[in-house]
Amino acid sequence: MSDQLLDVEKKVHALERDIQAVKQTLNEIKKAKEQGKGIDQISIIPYFTYSLLLPKTEEQKGTVIGNFVIYNTGSVPLENPIICLKVMPKERAILSAKLGEDVQYDRHLNPLVMEPWQYIDEEANKIVEEKGEFWLKPVHISKIEAGHKLSFSNFQLKFDIGEEQTTYKVEGFFYCKQLPNGVRALNNIVIHA
User: Fold this and answer.
1) Would you call 10 exposed, middle or buried from its count of C-beta atoms within 10 A (0-12, 13-18, 19+)?
2) CA–CA separation, 79 and 151 (whole Å)
3) CA 149, chain centre distance (Å)
4) In this structure, how many other beta carbons lie within 10 angstroms of the beta carbon of residue 67?
5) pLDDT tens-digit series, residues 100-159
6) By CB atoms within 10 Å of each CB, which of 38, 52, 83, 103 scores lowest?
């Protein structure tokens, strides 16, 4: 009888230790959830880097050579990336870039230049003419991994410097499956000529 009582007491103690371990794990999960650990976070930083080349004569145009960089600072990959570059005024500023699968880059010159880009569809070319918006997607990359960057590199914006003062502006937006409403770039390219 005393052996049975001893066995039951051992089982009760073992169950109490198990319950205590489960409670401790539950508390750790709750604490991690409150601190944001273990939760998938979507976070990006889209921004422009650029250089301005001023014309040497009045007949020449000014030029901006720019990159639009998307930095995935979150903890999940961003799928189906798309960018929109809006150029204003569309009638006086000319944005150009090499688009398509056959574009070759020298990665030694610019490590960010790795991916060719193309219009998102056939209608996107009409939107450029009507609204001055360039809707583009990368040719080969279908997602931006957490902690990685993707860049639309070496596009050029040509603008006139004349007697009439004009403000030229390029705004950038990033879209993906996880962010269908888009995210505005941290900065714009703005030139008062």
Assistant:
1) exposed
2) 15
3) 7
4) 17
5) 766 555 555 555 546 888 899 988 888 888 898 999 999 988 999 999 999 998 888 888
6) 38
Instruction: Please check whether residue 65 is in contact with residue 73, taking contact to mean a CB–CB distance below 8 angstroms.
Output: no
Exposed (0-12), middle (13-18) or buried (19+): which is 131, by Cβ within 10 Å? Answer: middle
Q: Measure Cα distances from 108 to 65, 111, 113, 149, 152 in Å.
A: 18, 6, 9, 17, 17
CATH (residue range 44-192): 2.60.40.10
- Tokens coding 159: 């603008």
End-to-end CA distance of the chain: 99
Give me the mean pLDDT over the 30-50 stretch.
Answer: 80
pTM: 0.73
Task: Retrieve residue 92's tokens.
Answer: 């006086």
Residue with tokens 């639009």: 68
Can you say how many angstroms the Cα of residue 29 is from the centroid of all Cα atoms in its chain?
A: 30
Contact in structure between 81 and 64 (CB atoms under 8 Å): no
CA distance 168 to 191: 5
